[in-house]
Amino acid sequence: MNGATLAMASLALMLGSACQGSAPAPAAAPGPAGPAAASRAPTGPAPARWLEVFTAFDGARVLCNQNVLGSPTARPMVEIAFTLYATRTPPADVVRFYATAHGLTVEPGATTVTVKLADGRKHLTVSKATDVHATCGVEPQPDEPTVIEVSQLISG
């Protein structure tokens, strides 16, 4: 499955899903991320909150940013913007961090979770780097077992 197919699958998931998760965490939530570093990523410090609703995961590294358009014949036209991050933290630890922050229940040791906010228009998905996830040409390093996809429905 190529990156475009995966991005379209993410688009379908976003459009066909109801809101899941709790209200955004308080603005003073702990854990702001440190500097972001990637060849195709913006420079400077990462924002303390991704998409203004998700607490940035400390130590996550930006892999890439991309916008994906839906079918040109679809009405209304749909666009999704997403950013992929990678971290050296094990997936189960990252899952536990976001599940706790958003009041979600997950099985002990779970390696994937999706948090949906803003009426389902903003998503954060944690998964193992080896699992199927959206791609945009930049892969995690071998010592980065976890990928965090943060996406937003721009139009539609």
Structure description:
This protein has 156 residues and is α+β, with helices and mostly antiparallel strands. It has one domain. The protein has helices spanning 3-15, 91-101; strands spanning 49-50, 54-55, 61-69, 79-87, 113-117, 122-128, 146-155. The strands form two sheets. A five-stranded antiparallel β-sheet has the order 3-4-7-6-5. A two-stranded antiparallel sheet has the order 1-2.
What is the element string, with H for helices and E for strands?
Answer: HEEEEHEEE
Proportion of β residues?
25-35%
Mean pLDDT: 75
Can you tell me the overall shape?
globular
Distance between the termini: 25 Å
Instruction: Write down how many β-strands occur, each being a DSSP E stretch of 2 or more residues.
Output: 7
Helix content: 10-25%
Number of helices: 2
Largest sheet: 5 strands, antiparallel
The class by helix and strand makeup works out as alpha+beta
As for the number of domains, it is 1
Rg (C-alpha, Å): 15 Å
Strand order of the largest sheet: 3-4-7-6-5
Low-confidence blocks of residues: 1-44
